[in-house]
Fold these 2 entries.
Entry 1:
Amino acid sequence: MATGSRRRETAMSVPATEHHDPAVAFEAAKLGVWTFLATEVLLFGALFTAYTVFRMKYPEMFRVEHAKLDRVLGAVNTVVLITSSLVVVLGVDAIKRGKARLLEAYFGATILLAGVFLCVKYAEYAAKFHHGLYPRTNLFFSLYFVMTGLHGIHVLAGMGLLSYVIVLSRRGRLSEAWHTPAEMSGLYWHFVDLVWIYLFPLLYLIG
Amino acid sequence: MARGTSTSRLVYLAVFAALLALTVVTVLVSYVDLGLGNVVVALLIASVKASLVALFFMHLKGESRLMWGFALIPIVFLSLIIFGTLVDTMLR
Amino acid sequence: MDNVLAFGAASTQAGRVDALFVMIAVIGGFFFFLTQGMLIYFAVKYRRRLPDRDNETPAITGSPLLEFLWVLIPSIVVVVIFYYGWRVYTDQRIPVAGATEVHVNARQWMYEIRYPDGRTAINEIRVPAGKPVKFLLSAADVLHGFYLPDFRVKMDMIPGRVTTLWVQPDRPGSYQIFCTVYCGTGHSNMLARLIVMPPREYAEWVEHGGREVGGGGGHEPLAVRGERIFRNAGCLNCHAIDGKEKIGPNFRGMYGSKVLLEGGASVTADEEYLRESIVDPGAKIVKGYPNVMPTFKASMPPEDVKAVVEYLKMLK
Amino acid sequence: MEGAERIASNRNGRGYLAERGWRSWAFTLDHKRIGAMYLWTTIFFFLVGGVFALLLRLELLSPQARYFSNHTYNVFFTLHGSMMIFLFIIPAIPSGLGNFFIPLQLGARDVAFPRLNLASYWVFAAGFLVVIGSLVAPMDTGWTFYTPYSAKSAAAVTTLSLGIFLLGMSSILTGLNFIVTIHKLRAPGMTWYRMPLFLWGMYATSIIQVIATPVVGVTFLLLAAERVFGVGFFDPSKGGDPVLFQHFFWFYSHPVVYVMILPAMGIVSEVIPVFSRKPIFGYKAIAWSSMAIALGGFLVWGHHMFTSGMSPLANTIFSLMTFFVAVPTAVKVFNWTATLYKGSITFEAPMLYALTFIFLFIVGGLTGPFLGALATNVQLHDTYFVVAHFHYTMMGGTVMGFFAGLHYWFPKMTGRMLNEKVARTAWALIFVGFNVTFFTMFIVGVRGMPRRYAEYLPKFQVENVVSTIGSAVLALGILVMCWNLLQGLRKGAPAPANPWRALTLEWKAASPPETENFHEIPVVTEGPYGYGIPKA
């Protein structure tokens, strides 16, 4: 139907907004992402609350149990994520200068780093299971697995997002003038990093 | 299109270096027993790192008041749920 | 006893709660008639007079003074109500010294009572009038509630914790206890009674080892005693004796019948089977029923079990 | 070219409804169609939830279980609560009417993220399908899902948790979309203080949805994790704390009460000035009281837990905060009443429902202090008094506001007028039935009848029978209303663009509006309620 296809086209090709003003569209997307991140803070927030409550209730248990985590591996993962954050921000910077190939390379590297992060995580989980430490073992490990697990799911989602941006870029859709998806997925990726910045000391260092 | 202030790559690298350094510091400090001090130091360092990421990597530095609002509001509510729950669980 | 207008508070404290209730009702009533009155009055008075033409309406858009007043006045009123409610509550929560302590443990779906001197009971708490009582509340499985409507108090019962509730029963009588936190299928049958006895009767009752005064003594037929125990122990919360289905198996005609068990076996419901099912309910589960019954090993002495079995035999 | 096409599409008089076929709905990016899909879905679940309510009332005719077993009764009240809360009252006004009218009232062509909007409908659909899937082992936990019972129950609580998580996600995405829309897509000249009050209400609502919903989402995930992996946050045998579940649950579920009521208050603020032909009294006070309620709503979750063994200090703080959240609510009521003063009031169905909202909401509001004050709360908590109180606010409030909105915007949404006589009959039945049903619950609650009781003491029977009779009248009224809506949809008289002579922007669009709402984006030069007729 003529009207139908016309509408779909306008709605799809000019992403997001309706004043058909790219500047408004960009601002709207950014506000949307920040609002989404606000949601995410509270999603993890409930877990941080549980952590605080139980840590204050059972400090001794946390002290004993957190020593069973490998803080070197944790630190390695921290460095991996921080590096990936830098790489993402360089990727966004590249597309702002119109360099699509560079963006793809940087984002590809980020996905690779995310993969490294997940592999290390996998090794850690395997070691814990090997020693008979499961989510049901005690409250500390309940918290450990739930918090890092939820974070891991976010890492996976981030890898998906970044891949999507690479696909868009390969198709020549991103440019100096319009690169909203790259910038938005960058924001999300930094948030994933941000959560880990807190998880690392809370779980590995101070228990 | 106006994009706010564009941060230079040098700044990104500097921030990255700072983040790395802080990571090393926080790991090293964790080997020293400061009692409650460990918690304070670890959270302080984490917050500095988080602020660096938010300000420079996420470009909050040059953002409008609106974005600042949406960045900070969740922290207020996070403190609220932690505080409200602790008032109960710690004082029963 | 529970008439709204007569209130019928069973203690002085409950009277204070009622006073608070009345105070809020009076304040609320005032604002109710004020606002609803204005709403209806305006709606009638300023209805459109002519079918096709609007009345002249002034372009009033607000009044800072009015806004200020109707922020200020409700604020003051609510602070007053808060303070009064807080005072009454706080007084309720401070136990006086020398209170009788009664442990109440809730499980699906009964209250197990334990007195400090070791006496136990089910679903029936007896205390002397005029002396403060402190209930130490716990739960074995899920959340339960302990609600004494005549005393205007309640408290949740939480697994892994002990919560407390304190009352000062002034008047002898038999008062209802409800479970108020939803706890599963038998929630609405989880009832108990608080029996406040005149001090002398109470002392007699304790002396008799916690048996009903004048309750048959040694002459009582075993089955009659069994029925009394059966009713007091809350068996009826889950078991029917009149052909209907409840949570557990029906007792009518059970004695002597062949019972199909979970897992395919079957057993004849003889005295030994009935006895075992009271002290070790999980041993043989009747097919189609959940394994939820608690053991009565501790709370029902062997001779009481015997009596209950005798009673069950009579349910033909 | 485009302009010509638009006029052509408008000429058949069906506006955004012109296209036919399921694809034109399932893949639509039009906020109006998405809103309409939400409305159909939520009204369907409202009726299903209502049937469960009637079955409950039927059973309560007699003190002993007569028609259903206790377990069946418990399943019914759980389904009634969960469906009404998660599938009707949370999405109905925000996602249904909100989707339809936020862009229209803003003077925008659509919401900020149309594709996200469609996605959130389908996430919602996935959510309710999973919820329906959980009916293989229907839950009997009550809609509050308190642990440890919900962690132990044999019902399909895990499946249900995931379903509710999806519903929550949909709610978050919708809220996010509305926040950005209101910030970024206001028509030229539409300053914040020129926005219709429905938008203020929706903005406050969206903030709550975005901030509070993730907490309940993760809580339900933890409940599922407890059942599947043995995670022990709420399990006392592992050192966990069942009351922590209540904190998390109510951190969401109290603010969400305002997700339900704020949009309804917004609708009332629209309807009252239109049918009084007067500017709204105290625009800024109403607008900011919405924001105050939204924020204050986050400070009071503990008042659901006064008897849960919470610390005395927490009880005190939450009680005090609860009283303060009452003040902005009172301010709204006073302002609506003052708007009527010297008006030129007519009583079409939307106005009747709006006035009913105020009337019933005052009753609900004034019974709040009984529950906010600590001592009386301890008496009345978990009795029928609470049931009566929240039905007066939620059904007497939100649902009446929703009905007001349905009748007010029906001509705009469908292009047809409703039969006013039938609408008033339905209203009268609903008003009478509602009060008979629920006022008796106050009485039986004060007399001490606990809620969620399949069987009750015989001394409570009179009230329960009266209440059941009332519920039959109420149900009849709702049936008549639904019949009237369907009749209007099928053969109502064609509606003009602005049948109520209202001044907000949605009435500048055609009835029904065309696909992108406006031929030209309107330019706003004054506030939304300039009704006063100065003396000639």
Note: Residues 7-58 of chain B form one domain.
Entry 2:
Amino acid sequence: MDARETVFAAIRKVAPDVDTTTLPTDVDFREEAELDSMDFIGILTAVHEATGVEVPETDYPLITTVDDFAGYLTSHHAA
Amino acid sequence: MNTTQVEPLLMTGREAMRAAMTEAMRADDRVFLMGEDVGRYGGCFAVSMGMLEEFGPERIRDTPLSESAFVGAGIGAAAGGMRPIVEIMTVNFSLLALDQIMNTAASLRHMSGGQFGVPLVIRTTTGGGRQLAAQHSHSLDGWYAHIPGIKIVAPGTIDDFRWMLGPALADPDPVIIFENGALYGASGEVSPTDPGIPLERAIVRRAGTDISLVTFGGTLPTCLDAAATLAERGIEAEVVDLRSLRPLDDATIMDSVARTHRAIVVDEGWRSVGLSGEISARIMEQAFYELDAPVGRVCTAEVPLPYAHQLEQAALPSVERIVDAAMAAMDGTALAVAS
Amino acid sequence: MKHLDPDTRRRLLRDMVFVRRFEERCAQLYQQTKIRGFLHLYVGEEAVATGVIRLLEPDDALVGTYREHGHALLKGVPTDAVMAEMFGRVDGCSGGRGGSMHLFDAEHRFYGGNAIVGGGLPLAVGLALADKLAGRDRVTACFFGEGAMAEGEFHESANLAALWDLPVLFCCENNRYAMGTALDRSEAETDLALRVSGYGMPAWPVDGMDVEAVTDAAERALASVRSGTGPAFLELRTYRFRAHSMYDPELYRDKAEVTEWKTHDPIHLLADRMIADGQLGPDDLAAIEQEVDEEIERSVEFADASPEEGVETLLRHVYAEAPEPQRDIEEVSA
Amino acid sequence: MTTSTTTAFAMPSLGADMDEGRIVEWLVAPGDHVERGQIVVIVQTEKSDIEVEVFESATVDEILVGEGELVPVGTPIARMVPDHPSAAPVEESEPEPAAAETAASSAPAAPAAAAGGPGVESEAGHVTSPVLRHLAEELHVDATHLHGSGPGGRVVRADVERAARPAGRRITPRARRLMVERNLAPERFADRSLVTGADVLAAPAAAPSIEPSASEAAPEQRAATERTRQESMRRHIAELMSRSWREIPHYHLAQRLDLSVALEHLGAANERRPLADRIVPGALLLCAAARAARKVPQCNGWWHGGRFEGSDTVDLGLVLSLRSGGVIVPTIQRADELSPAEMMERMTELVQRARQGRLRSSHLGEASITVTSLGERGADEVIGVIHPPQVALVGFGAVRNEVWPEADGTGIVVRPTVHATLAGDHRATDGVVGSRLLTQMQSLLDGALPDELDALAGGT
């Protein structure tokens, strides 16, 4: 499944009210979708279940936008 | 007679009622006035002053001091096809005629299976505040409003003094008009033509959003003053003038309570087993879920009205007591206010 | 006292027998629980109502008391309607709402029974006042017991009628007992006619057991009233043979007195006089009784067949127009 | 004697209130002839002894009830042979039930006259009473297919009024009071059309029944209940806050908290814990607030009837903003006894349940102090409004890097910082007490909590 779609699916799981089809992929999606730290951990958990990738706290700055997150996943997933 | 004036006339309560009786007697010769000293003396409160000269002793009939007989005679004359106006000098003396009012006037239509009606108007003076002491200061509206078969109205504005008599005379059933003595001398605006308001309709005299002051007759002016004082404290009180005590205009009362969610009933009668209790019960039954505070009641203290001025004023419903009751209801800590 | 012609006597006799048998049938119906509440019977006093009412014009008004079955029947209220009213049925003359003590009939200007002692007196005065003011020449006859003479309403009404010269015929049925209180234990002055003369109106005592004496006095009194000179008063001395109502132990009078008065039975007084004058055969009275019984029995059947009013119209006749809404009552009558 | 047609002579009713009578004395015997009006028996009633007469001449056939016997009115007491059987068709008078309950008369069934004689059953749903038909029109209710709740399916006034009443929700005045006092939000009762005081009192004990069973409800209905829930929640919050603002004399304090030590230990702990057990800074702050409240008991309790009432446990009200709008304030009980990990578990569970509307009753008990936090992305500082009847509210702004002076005051350094505020009820506490709570949090974040995080790091 396309990495970006994985991120969107994770967001929808935690915040069903967010319309991922119109969510810009090049902005801080936590800001855009008003996701707090609890939501964010929920998203990381969902992504981990879907892809097995576990993002450490230190890497949070690398996954600010959906595009970054997707890129991060493809690079780590492959490894 | 000149052309009909457009702007309202200024009249006193007695002038307004006199104009109403005069108009009725000129228009219908079935109408006549009967009561103690209504003729030569001109009426104990000078309401019928001058009418003897225009209509003569046959139709302006002074009676002996026999309340049961002349009220009973009024009932009989009405059953016999006339449209009498019987004046009982004050509500205090009406107790002597209560048997005729209850057991004949109110019951005749029902007992006779609908064959006989009693199209009679009884006018009487009510209320205290004029240092007439215990036997001349009663407010017994609630007693009469308890009786099915008669209608009870209480004019609180001079306009109602002028225009309530017409529909009362036209009513096929007995109507008792309780005129608060304090309003005879008060003056107010009267519309030149009949506004045609149904007898049993209550009227909101002052719109408001925070609390409803439900009252009638002599205490209407007191409530309007209280509303003005409350407005200075940022509380907008709505003043509902019942006008009719039987039947009660539940719809208007409940609409008001639905707007304000708080109500104070102001009644010059005594509190226990009184009209204010009936109105409070109806608000509880029909507007329970609108209430944010218990319905308050401001009534005359349960004492035979004393002669001394300061005692009498302390006993009667006053602006201060109404404002206090309203404030108590407003701040939500309203306990059963025994004002 | 002049005697009446045979035809009038026969009519008066039939009327008295009719009232007597009607009242006795009511007593039986009461025992069978067909008639309920209070029931006050006129047995023994028939001559009073028969003598006066026969002289009234159809357009005259009559105001009675709770002992008014005879007055209603004699004023023309149909027997069926009176009996149906006693049964509380829809076809009763008051629609089943009044019962024995509150018979009413607008068509015959019968302004009812009245269960308040003296309660009807001011009403009668008012009816007469209306007639006077409207210029109508008719009389209002008002019947009441001597007990009412102790009520303030009697004094006020008599005074007002006399003061304003109103066309009222006051008929006091003095049967000597106000329920259980004898006249001399109630009135300082027991000569009632004498007392009433103080109001400035003509007043006569009359032997209320002799229907011809009643007729004679009533003619004079009615002539006086119709002349416009004001009211008149008849003290009709009579006696009730049965209890005040159903039933009282009659401890207030002794049996001997009742038996003695029964020897003055108004029906037999007239019947014996007619037999003596050859106007009545030995079996005629029995024949009249049977004919009357059959009419009364038809009225019982009529009453029994008349339906009871449905509760959904309970609130009718309180006011002329629509009944005022009564929340809790509707639950019952819905 | 051939009994041609005998008739029964029944115990007569001798008064409006008489149900039964006792035979005192028979004055006649079988075979005697009696005349109309003749007294034949003495009967005793409550009032007195009454002489009873016969109304037809007849011959006594048989005495059925002896002297001294008490029998109900209507009971045959003798049999008679009337002189003229046909004269008066005296029908056999069956025993009448006591006068008072005379229901059906023994007469032939009354014809069903138009006036609606007895026994006219109205079919279910049909409105017979004119008064009710008039009311139905007035309230625009179609009276034809109303369900009748009255006897025999008869439509009664309440049925008409219920049909007319919008499906809106009714909360009794008493219920409103209890909700405010127990800090319960109205939408906890979203599924009820009538909420009484009893419902509110029952709420904590019973499992909260606020599952809107969203799944089964049709979408529009879900949206509708959602909308009414929103409205009532907004109304409740409005009522609560305006009452608080009107009644409680607030004072406010603010203090910057240095999180550098705490977050450093948190990061270390999270590194060695699986993703699912990762702890967010917010959990630390809640622990700090709860433990500080234990150390400053004057801020942990309620203001009732003019005086302070302390709580013996620290039950932390947590202001949670719902994604669908509005806030809900579940309670974390004994929050001061929770480790950061336990607090994180509680928060995760609470947020999940709150958002699905399945909070447990324990979550909705009475809080003793409340915390409101805008999360990482909120404003710098939130100055809150106390939830009556509590006496304190702690507010946390967003965690941000801010400039701090070096410890020795020579230079500056950037550290993760949060602005903590305290809203205090001046009736219960003074500023000096309130500020002690804030300073306690700083020492907890620099001392006890980091140590516990280290201990965790070693654990699972």
Note: Chains C and A do not touch (no CB pair under 8 Å).
